[in-house]
Amino acid sequence: MQRIRELHCTNYLYAKDASLPHGFDSYGFDDMSHLHSDIKKILHTNVKPLQTMCSYYFDGNGKHFRPKVVSLVSKLCNEHGGIERKVSENQRKISLIAEMIHVGSLIHDDVVDFSNVRRGKRSVNALCGDHNAVMVGNYVVANASKLLSSIGNPEITIIISQIIDDIVRGSFLQCVYKQDNKDQFKHYLKKTYKKTASLIANCCKAVACLSSNNNEVIEAAYQYGSNIGMAFQLVDDLLDFVASSKTLGKPSVADLKLGLATAPVLFACDKHPDLHSLILRRFNETGDVEWALEAVYNSSALEETRLLAEQYCKDARLALSMFHESTNKTALLQLTDVVLNRSK
Amino acid sequence: MNIVQCRSILGGLNNLHLPLKRCLSFNGWSKDTNSTMTKVETDAERIVGFPTSFLSLRALLSDELSAVALHLRKLVRTKHPLLKTARGILFDSKHNVQTRGLIVLLFAKSIAQHKSASLNLNEIYNSQRTLAELTELIHTAFLVHRGLTGVDTLMKQDSNNSRSEMELGNKMAVLSGDFLLANACVALSELRNSKVVNMMSSSIADMSHGFFILPESGDSPDPTSLSILPTSRKDWEDAIFLSQGSLISNACLSAVELANQNGEFAECASSFGKNLILAQQARADMQRITCINNNTNNNGNFNHYSTELSALPVVLLANKHGGSDWLKNFVYVDDVTNMSLVMKQKLSSEVSKQNSVLEECEEICRHHRDSALSALNVLPPGEARESLKLLTKTFTAS
User: Fold this and answer.
1) Model confidence over A277-288: pLDDT tens digits?
2) CB of A285 less than 8 A from some CB of B
3) Given an 8 Å threshold on Cβ–Cβ distance, is A49 in contact with B212?
4) Is the pLDDT of residue A270 over 50?
5) Could you tell me the pTM of the whole model?
6) Is the pLDDT of residue A315 over 60?
7) Is the CB of residue A186 less than 8 Å away from at least one CB of chain B?
8) pLDDT digits 0-9 by tens, B168-177
9) Mind telling me which GO cellular component terms the entry cites (chain B) (predicted)?
């Protein structure tokens, strides 16, 4: 089994850490350096347990993937509209909000999934209990909403509030399975959009709205965010099958163990229709997880997942075709490759 | 649900076990379920012309929550706290839960009667109705999230609990609470008023914040966390404001904002909301502590809720006896479950010995009630204002 796993690592993730010199951190995002310290300032409170827990994930680590996309898209739209290229104060607020909503939802997800590890350290619920963790999550998102109100633009408020609604509805979708195989994939994609892509897509839309009245620009920003978000999650689901717990910061096949059928399993269903009953019973019988894993490795499922992610990346690049060539555009185009080839 | 049904259900509550009743009194308003209160509230509903039990119906009837209901059915035979919360929301919706929405509507109605109010005189604007609805949604969401208790704690409390069922219950509690909050969030954005978004988001942040000062249920009081509990009147007022007052206060303020009142009634709104909550909580705390003797349940002596330690009479006593160290005398570690519990009986008898403390509580309750009532005097006269006054008096009556 270990050998098969390694094999797949090299096949589908040719870009391991060593062979990927330009990761997420290679674009000189100067405005990212204070991201987490700014969020900590917003969340500051004198109540010690809350203070410790709410700033726990804002420790300067993490990929900052979402705020980076948002910030690059801001610059791209500003440049396109011929206004000052710099990220405006309100656009930067959207970056902070994106990260805060993301972390808030992670905290709640870990409670729902009984997960004890997150980003390579113990999760909030493992440290302070489910009860407190839920309140920490509420606190972080409520403060994001306060920050949102300080932008003072009702359209932007509506766009960002939609994200919160999508994430919650996405979580509900994750709890329900459809019987039909075709439906199942559609269901999975819908869940993935709501739970992951909506945040990036709508934040891109929001910063575009802050920069331009041009509906084409706004739509392009939204499409880029939506597609790169989908690709990001597909690769995440793929990595769950290949990465070791060391590189991903969470145990491998975590999704399977939670009873979740992600793209690789759904693709493997084509070749192994028996998997179907395992999906419906959420891999809860002894040996189910191992069997599903074996089925994924004995099919082209990982390849197909990667192809699908590639397709989304292509669509993301296509969405940018209306913008003039610029360093920002190049960075966003390259980012799709980074998403596709990341190993963590 | 008509008044007769409502009353019979409320009457039935007296036969329910202690934790459920406790859960309901946590809902905010005192457990006093006499017909005066019901009458006052029905009259108030007539004034706003809207049965407030319908306020959060839109969210409660959604696909997402019916999925939760389906899962809850599996838990019916267990003792998961979410069931108690759900029962509280459904059975008690007329009485306890929707009161916040009703107050917002009355407040809105009252300021709409003012001369300078824009065109739709005597109208409760649609936006203010949405505001009332989302106030209820936020309140209910927090009730649901509070119904969450660590699985390990639940297993310790009752060995009959099955781990997988308790886990399912917790999952449902987190998701349904989030769902209600998300609904509130969207409704809030649709009001298209950034000041209101700011105020209502602040109240959500305050409620989460307050939870860390006044842990509500489940978590047994950790001796090291006793130092966070309030030990002075001011601390107590601040903590109650965060966990309960902020929502009503900000909702009333938002109602003023939505009526374009140029801040004329802003001060009145926040003062009324804050003082109403403090007065009713002072009353509820007194009743909670002095009535412990009457509720001799099988394990009535001890309970795992730490809130008795933050009840106003206890807070005032602690203040006299040197702060949080004194509170340690009332925490006890159970030999079997190894959980720390609050010695309610001992606390109660200690408080009963100190008449001066109860008098002080009475005085604090009266002070906040009077402040709430005088804040209302700023509002234009009319039946909405009188109804608010009546509600205030009823909630704070002994």
Assistant:
1) 888 888 888 889
2) no
3) yes
4) yes
5) 0.85
6) yes
7) no
8) 888 888 998 9
9) mitochondrion; polyprenyl diphosphate synthase complex
B64, B201, B209 member nearest A47 (Cβ): B209
A285 phi and psi, to 5 degrees? -100, 155
- A284 contact B CB<8A: no
Q: Phi-psi bin for B346: left (phi > 0), alpha (psi -120 to 50), beta? A: alpha
Express each pLDDT in A123-135 by its tens digit: 998 888 888 899 9
Hey, what domains does chain B have and what are their CATH numbers?
3-14+36-395 (1.10.600.10)
Whole-angstrom Cα distance, residue B377 to residue A148? 35
> Is residue B229 pLDDT above 50, yes or no?
yes
Residue A179 in contact with partner chain B when CB distance is under 8 A = no
Distance between CA A89 and CA A31 in Å, rounded? 11
B154, B203, B211: which to substitute to probe chain A, counting the most A Cβ within 10 Å?
Answer: B211
**Range B282-288 average pLDDT:** 86
ipTM, 2 decimals? 0.88
* Neighboring chain A residues of B149 at a CB cutoff of 8 Å: 130-131
Inspect the interface and report whether the beta carbons of B219 and A131 lie closer than 8 Å: yes
pLDDT, mean over chain B: 76
Give how far A41 is from chain B: nearest CA, Å: 15
